[in-house]
Structure formats: structure tokens, C-alpha cells
């Protein structure tokens, strides 16, 4: 039974990824984003980031999924703050989800939506962590002193 659910989940994820790929293709051929540097690699990064969220069956980010993702990042938000974030990304519509199209417009747009800032900040934090050496510091000798 577990195997069945794993296969079904895998199929759903691959269908969602195909759908996101087709949206990426549309963005690549859109003149609005023709000036965007490294658009293809940015779209690929945004797709991976988007798929980290628990997407609903329509492939959208729901309020609770956004809440869990932000909590993982150590940024717990109130219900009202989450609704405001979703509204900001989805252009003020009354829906409680973020579709991939709106997500890309947010990430590629000039406006600094709160969610965009959080996701960009998260990436910067990871880069800094990767650069720091792990383990105990190297032993210093007198010749290392300035």
C-alpha cells in the first residue's frame, strides 16, 4: 500500500513539474522578460523552490503550506500575515493560494513582496553557511599573527 502511495505521489509530482516547465517555457518566450539576465537558470531555481512547498492537487501553494515552509525557516507568521502575503503575491485577489504564474511574476518583478525577500534572504543565508568551514578552527601559530 505504501508503494502505491509513493508511486501516486511521484506521478503527481512529475505531472506538476511538467506543468511548471510549460509555464517556464511561456516566460522564456515572453518579451516582457527578454532583458532578464540568465532567465532560464533563474526559472529553474524558482521551479525547484516552488516545488519545495507542499503543493495542493492543483499545484498551488496554500496558506497552511506557506505557514509550514516559513516555520521551517524559523519565520512563524500569523494567519493574517500569511493571508496578506498571499494577497500581495496574487495581486490582491481573494483566493487563498499562490499559483506558479503569480509566484514567477513576484520573483521576476521589480516589487519587493515580503515573500520574495524572505526566499531571497534564505538563499543568501545558505550560501554564507556553505562558505564557512565546519569543525574546530585551525591551530594558529605565531607566524599567523599580523
UniProtKB/TrEMBL annotation:
Regions annotated as coiled coil: none
Gene Ontology MF term list: actin filament binding; calcium ion binding
Domain EF-hand: 41-76
GO cellular component terms given for this protein: actin filament; phagocytic cup; ruffle membrane
Subcellular location: Cell projection, Phagocytic cup; Cell projection, Ruffle membrane; Cytoplasm, Cytoskeleton
Membrane topology field: Peripheral membrane protein
Alphabetic keyword roster: Acetylation, Calcium, Cell membrane, Cell projection, Cytoplasm, Cytoskeleton, Membrane, Metal-binding, Phosphoprotein, Repeat
PROSITE patterns reported for this sequence: EF_HAND_2 (PS50222)
Residues covered by region (Disordered): 126-146
UniProt keyword Transferase, yes or no: no
Name of one Pfam family that matches: AIF-1
Top-level taxonomic group: Eukaryota
Primary location class: other
Biological-process GO terms, alphabetical: actin filament bundle assembly; ruffle assembly
SUPFAM superfamilies: EF-hand
Protein name: Allograft inflammatory factor 1
Amino acid at each position: 500500500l505504501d508503494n502505491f502511495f509513493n508511486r501516486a505521489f511521484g506521478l503527481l509530482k512529475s505531472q506538476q513539474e511538467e506543468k511548471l516547465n510549460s509555464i517556464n517555457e511561456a516566460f522564456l518566450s515572453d518579451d516582457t522578460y527578454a532583458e532578464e539576465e540568465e532567465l532560464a537558470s533563474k526559472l529553474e531555481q524558482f521551479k525547484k523552490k516552488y516545488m519545495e512547498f507542499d503543493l495542493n492537487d492543483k499545484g498551488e501553494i496554500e496558506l497552511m503550506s506557506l505557514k509550514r515552509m516559513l516555520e521551517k525557516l524559523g519565520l512563524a507568521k500569523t494567519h493574517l500575515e500569511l493571508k496578506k502575503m498571499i494577497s500581495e503575491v496574487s495581486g490582491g485577489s481573494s483566493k487563498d493560494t499562490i499559483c506558479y504564474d503569480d509566484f514567477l511574476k513576484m520573483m521576476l518583478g521589480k516589487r519587493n513582496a515580503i515573500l520574495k525577500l524572505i526566499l531571497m534572504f534564505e538563499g543568501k543565508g545558505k550560501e554564507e553557511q556553505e562558505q564557512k568551514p565546519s569543525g574546530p578552527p585551525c591551530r594558529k601559530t605565531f607566524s599567523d599573527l599580523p
